[in-house]
Amino acid sequence: MIFETPEEFAAALPPMRAIAGLDFGDKTIGVAVSDTFLAVATPLDTIRRKKFGQDADALSAMIQPRAIAGLVLGLPRNMDGTEGPRCQKTRAFARNLSQRPDFADLPITFWDERLSTVAAERALLEADTSRRRRAEVIDHVAAGYILQGALDRLRHLRGA
């Protein structure tokens, strides 16, 4: 089930279950997870992309044990807000995921991810992370920024 607005997505989420955020790229998928109160995003891991089936299996193996109740995919809009080829790839990935039995009942939505990687890079630089370590963690740290933005919006919708 793909929802275009945070309001629809929030209405489809069961209470007290975590959600996951994805930074979907050509070579990797960064994954972050929330707590069950939907307050804090934590970077989890990065999946090295292969074929869709293998990518989806790796993602499923990561989120199934955590009882994830929904997915937030970063939508890489252009700086002027328009959607280009990268957005189309992200939306296609979401559609393909939603057609798999292990993801069929999982609400999926999108979050504008403009500058999330820049913010993640800045945070890692401020933490004095080595270049090699930054390359290893940048994608799931960016997923954490994406997910935290969505969590903040969901909290606002709940009036908390």
Helix content: 40-55%
Tally of alpha and pi helices: 5
Q: Report the β-strand fraction as a percent range.
A: 15-25%
Categorize the overall geometry.
Answer: globular
In whole angstroms, the N-to-C terminal distance is: 26 Å
The average pLDDT score comes to 87
Radius of gyration: 15 Å
**Strand tally, please?**
6
Oligomeric state: single chain
Spatial order of the strands in the main sheet? 1-6-5-2-3-4
Structural class: alpha/beta
- Main β-sheet, in a few words? 6 strands, mixed
What does the model show?
The chain is of the alpha/beta class and 160 residues long. The chain is 45% helix and 20% strand. It contains five helices and six strands. It has helices spanning 6-12, 52-63, 85-98, 116-126, 131-158, and strands at 2-3, 20-24, 28-34, 41-48, 71-75, 108-112. Helix 3 links the parallel strand 5 (71-75) and strand 6 (108-112).
Keywords, separated by commas or semicolons:
six-stranded mixed beta sheet; 45% helix
Compact overview of the structure:
With 160 residues, this protein is of the alpha/beta class. The chain has helices spanning 6-12, 52-63, 85-98, 116-126, 131-158; strands at 2-3, 20-24, 28-34, 41-48, 71-75, 108-112. The protein has a 6-stranded mixed beta sheet, with helices on both faces.
Q: Layout of helices and strands, plus pairs?
A:
Blueprint: E1 2-3, H1 6-12, E2 20-24, E3 28-34, E4 41-48, H2 52-63, E5 71-75, H3 85-98, E6 108-112, H4 116-126, H5 131-158
Parallel strand pairs: 1-6, 2-5, 5-6
Antiparallel strand pairs: 2-3, 3-4
